[in-house]
Amino acid sequence: MAACAQASGVGALIQGANGEAWGPVVADGGKVWQLEGGRVAKKETEGTKWFWVAGPAAQEADSSRLLSLEVTFMSGSVVSMSVPAGTSVKQIAAQLKEQESLAWMPQFFVGGQPMDSDASVGSSDSLSWSAVVMEPSGVFSRWRDHQLQWREMTVPVFTPYQGPFAVPVRFSEDRLVLSPPTPGDRLTVVDEFWLVGANEKARDYDPRTAPEPPYAGLRRVPLPVPAGTKLRFHDFDGSVLVAVLDDPEPGDKRVDPQDNQAYTFDELSAYYKGQYSKKQMSDYWQRSCWPIEKVSLLKFRLCDAHMEDMGKVHWKPEGKVQRLSVDFSCWGAVDNFKQEHNIMDYKAPASGFHARPIPGRFPAMNAGLTIHNDSDPVQEQVDVVVGQLYEGKLGIGFQHQSDTAVVIDIVVDDAHRLWKLGDEVKAINGNAIRKDGDFMRLYGSAKESLPVTFTVMRSKEVGRLLAEWHCNHPELALDSELVLLSGENAGGWALLAEWHCNHPELALDSELVLLSGENAGEDAFGDMRLFDWKNGHLVKTIPLEFTQGYIESDWPRGFLSGGSQTFFTAYSSEAGCNSESALIAFCTPV
Questions:
Q1: Nearest CA among 403, 501, 381, 508 for reference residue 453
Q2: Cα–Cα dist 157/160, whole Å
Q3: On the CB side of 365, how many CA atoms lie within 13 Å of its CA?
Q4: b/e map of 98-110 (b: 16 or more CB within 10 Å)?
Q5: Are the beta carbons of 388 and 450 closer than 8 angstroms?
Q6: Residue 62 belongs to what H/E stretch?
Q7: Given this model, what pLDDT does residue 363 score?
């Protein structure tokens, strides 16, 4: 007799009120159900925000349900579409690019916040979207043939050794918001938010003693709440800032460090009954269990950030104040809080392209990257038919994983005809690789009778760059021609253009990619390299000409939103130590 689907609880399926399939429940998190993939469902919203569903058939039926979507472009034109609920945001972007003959993939926003390209239409809070089309070559195309000028300025804000909180402002004139990090070594005060400009039209807010164009700008922009108010947490997505105030009211639950779950005193006493006396239980409750308190959550939108006059930029409250029970006892708790309340981190504007690393021969190194069009599927299935061996071997090197073997080295030149770095072998002669040891067992018997057919998942790429780098330093930038990498003096092993896997690609567009350096170490890199990924040529090496002379993996960095193509990074004014000021460095083509 077939087992029935779980109706509720762990193992059961949850569906949103809008029809979206949220997925199966994997754990009971107290006040929330924890779902596969990291999402949570608050128990108090059952019947209003979500419902239990009978089984997988419900998800399949929902994904095919048609929804009426309305997309408004900045030009004012409106496109109405009827699409299945399971269609991804990325697929909608590709469809509109083709349908409206757009030069680049549009980026979508709901309520001013960017949408996740992998999310489904059915998961959106609204079916009225705004769309922006940004030319990806504007990311850093002028870095190829212009001189690069470094500038540095001081911001009087508390900064730990890991660096400050610094996020570019969306659709502004090369500006960012800078504040103490969150959660940090101390609470942030509401007047510790600074607006920093890299390409101001006037010198009115330039703090330097002898300003010269391009002018910088620095202005304190406090949140519109009583002076002296402190924050336990804040996050900014480039448009809206979410702030949790330090205004607690005692809650009735505390978190037991043994399982990181919240209980009342009576619930915890019942659980430990017979193990501790009443006094021991009281001491454990007070000293070892951290309290969950109710605090206020507010949202503020940054207004007029596009205005030429920096003095007009201000925060405006958005929505109602929420009183919430919060637990910021660890980074995992912070991540859960952000997921539960749909708090999104800043994402750079879509360039139309993305990169995937190719695993290297050493654990900390990548062997290169593949470049993909956002509108294409990530991988495609390919059959590799091997009709001959090289001295009894395939002529390639593998990194073995539980259900695949990844090609990380091609030893024999002739093997390039069949294999590509990054190929993932999923089956041999039709027999699937399911666990450790399957590859060697299946290949060992198959090679006795050639040819051998390997079923491979291969990146559906528009280009690739074979250059190793450290995983701590991703590509710094990528556009239609160039790639910028961290530099050759950052530590590591040399193979073509090597970089550490702690530093992934720093930026990417349709021709360029910016990567951390050839010798980047685990924690930092000392220069960057710009590559044309279409031909693999190194365009230039870029020294880091500011006070520190290196960029650590924890420091904020990236490109500002605007026309100057300015790269930034920010750090403590006292290297390796906490300080009362931050330094911010800009690199701009001139």
A1: 381
A2: 10
A3: 26
A4: eeeeeebbbbbbe
A5: yes
A6: helix 56-63
A7: 61
* % pLDDT > 90, the chain: 32
**Rounded-to-integer distance, Cα 265 and Cα 284, Å:** 10
Per the listing, tokens 């009183």 go with: 323
- Pairing between β-strand 66-73 and β-strand 128-133 as defined by DSSP bridges: parallel
Residue 496: its pLDDT value, please?
41
Residue 497 confidence (pLDDT): 46
- Tokens of residue 562, six digits: 């605007």
Per 3-state DSSP, what percentage of the chain is helix, strand, and coil (rounded to 5)?
A: 15, 45, 45
Q: Is 552 in contact with 524 (CB distance < 8 Å)?
A: yes
Q: How far is CA 443 from CA 100, 448, 582, in A?
A: 49, 9, 57
Q: In a 10 Å sphere around its CB, with 0-12 CB exposed, 13-18 middle and 19+ buried, how is residue 259 labelled?
A: exposed
Burial of 345 from C-beta contacts in 10 A (0-12 / 13-18 / 19+): exposed
In single-letter form, the type of residue at position 423 comes to D
CA distance 80 to 89: 15
498-550 pLDDT per residue, tens = 556 666 677 787 788 888 887 777 788 999 999 888 777 889 999 999 999 99
Instruction: Choose among 358, 344, 346, 345: nearest CA to 505.
Output: 358
Predicted local distance difference test score (pLDDT) of residue 500: 60
- Tokens standing for 54? 């009978």
Q: Give one DSSP letter per residue of 497-533, joined into a string.
A: S--BBSS--SEEEEEEEEEEEET--SSEESEEEEEET
Show the 3-state SS of 409-462. EECCHHHHHCCCCCCEEEEECCEECCCCCHHHHHHHHHCCCCCEEEEEEEECCC
d(CA 527, CA 506): 12
Predicted local confidence at residue 479, as pLDDT: 45
The predicted pLDDT at position 60 comes to 54
DSSP letters spanning 136-191: GGGTTGGGTTS-EEEEEEEE-S-B-TT--EEEEPTTSSSEEEEE--SS-SSPEETT
Give the separation between CA 238 and CA 253, rounded to whole angstroms.
35
Q: Which residue has the tokens 């108010």?
A: 229
pLDDT tens string 224-245? 999 999 998 899 988 899 999 9
Q: Tell me, what's the pLDDT at 567?
A: 94
Specify the residue for token string 């087992």.
3
Q: What are phi and psi of 255, to 5 degrees?
A: -95, 125
HEC profile of 346-392 = CCCCCCCEEEEEEECCCCCEEEEEEEEECCCCCEEEEEEEECCCECC
User: What is the maximal distance between C-alpha atoms in the chain?
Assistant: 83
**Average confidence score pLDDT of the chain:** 82
C-alpha 419/C-alpha 407 separation (Å) is 8
Separation of first and last alpha carbons in the chain = 74
Nearest to 467 by CA among 489, 500, 420: 500
Cβ-count burial of 522 within 10 angstroms (0-12 exposed, 13-18 middle, 19+ buried)? middle
Which residues in the chain come in under a pLDDT of 70?
A: 1-7, 19, 54-64, 75, 103-104, 112, 134-139, 250-251, 328-331, 348-352, 360-365, 374-378, 466-504
